[in-house]
């Protein structure tokens, strides 16, 4: 068992598949009590049932992170049942890559709503609780796209650069007088359902082939999340970049 995870109450958004699902299973195996949010309740129900069958604790609630009220309700579920929130994993995200000249404005707006506003909604929902507790840990799924921009990824990268800026601002605001930790997990190519949100056929093919060829598993990223949580409370892992060994950028 990893240290400093057992018994913690951990809220996870985007928990119905991919990195969120793998992380929920990993943390539950380590003894955490997980509170799961996503839009697909059928998938959440299956995940929670699987965790419980394996001796873990899991609650779930339909959650659209673009709704602040939805995220607050998810966090309130954790408080009502467990009376605290130790970790928020802001994991929900979209990646509908496209060239700017294709003017997919609705997709840009959706990415901003989910990838940026969703993170802010999570922070707003847990920060007062964590400040009152004088402890907590906010983790965001960022991306290597938050460190480097590729053609077709301008808006997606923009949302992920924004997450890095928000996280760094939060860290600087809270670190002097609290024990709230802030972590960004920045995966490279990972085999998940994210390419399914890409409508550009050329980019979709490129990304899907890359992930199929060299992509990490969602479990690899779950291990990174667990590593960050498992550190002693006086140790903050602020940034973790996790690329496949064969990925250049």
Describe what you observe in this structure.
This protein is of the alpha/beta class and 249 residues long. The protein has one domain (9-240): NAD(P)-binding Rossmann-like Domain (Rossmann fold). The protein is 47% helix and 16% strand. Strands 3-2-1-4-5-6-7 form a seven-stranded parallel beta sheet, sandwiched between helices. Helix 4 (105-133) links the parallel strand 4 and strand 5 (136-141). The radius of gyration is 17 Å and the shape is globular. The mean pLDDT is 96.
Question: What's the short story on this structure?
Answer:
The chain is an alpha/beta fold.
Distance between the termini: 33 Å
- DSSP, total strands: 7
Radius of gyration: 17 Å
Largest sheet: 7 strands, parallel
Helix amount: 40-55%
Averaged pLDDT:
96
Helix and strand succession? EHEHEHEHEHEHHE
- Structural domain count: 1
CATH topology-level fold name = Rossmann fold
Q: Strand order of the main beta sheet, please?
A: 3-2-1-4-5-6-7
Question: Which structural class best describes the helix and strand composition?
Answer: alpha/beta
Strand content of the residues, in percent? Answer: 15-25%
Uncertain segments: none
Shape: globular
Count up the helices. Answer: 7
CATH superfamily: NAD(P)-binding Rossmann-like Domain
**CATH level 1 name:** Alpha Beta
CATH architecture: 3-Layer(aba) Sandwich
């Amino acid at each position: 068992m990893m240290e400093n995870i057992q018994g913690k109450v951990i809220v996870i958004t985007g928990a119905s598949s991919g990195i969120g699902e793998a992380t929920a299973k990993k943390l539950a195996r380590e003894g955490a009590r997980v509170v799961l949010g996503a839009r697909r309740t059928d998938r959440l129900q299956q995940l929670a049932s699987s965790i419980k069958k394996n001796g873990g604790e899991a609650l779930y609630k339909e959650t659209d992170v673009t709704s602040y009220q939805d995220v607050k309700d998810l966090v309130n579920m954790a408080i009502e049942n467990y009376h605290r929130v130790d970790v928020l994993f802001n994991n929900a995200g979209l990646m509908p890559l496209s060239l700017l000249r294709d003017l997919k404005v609705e997709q840009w707006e959706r990415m901003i709503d989910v990838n940026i506003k969703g993170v802010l909604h999570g922070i707003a929902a847990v920060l007062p609780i964590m400040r009152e507790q004088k402890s907590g840990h906010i983790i965001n799924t960022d991306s290597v796209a938050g460190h480097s921009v590729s053609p077709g990824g301008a808006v997606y990268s923009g949302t992920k650069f924004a997450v890095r800026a928000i996280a760094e601002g939060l860290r600087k605001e809270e670190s002097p007088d609290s024990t709230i930790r802030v972590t960004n997990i920045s995966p490279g190519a990972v085999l998940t359902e994210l390419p399914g949100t890409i409508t550009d056929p050329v980019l979709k093919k490129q990304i899907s082939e890359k992930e199929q060829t060299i992509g990490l598993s969602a479990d690899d990223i779950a291990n990174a999340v667990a590593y960050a949580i498992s550190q002693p409370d006086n140790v903050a892992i602020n940034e973790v970049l996790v690329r496949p060994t064969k990925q250049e950028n």
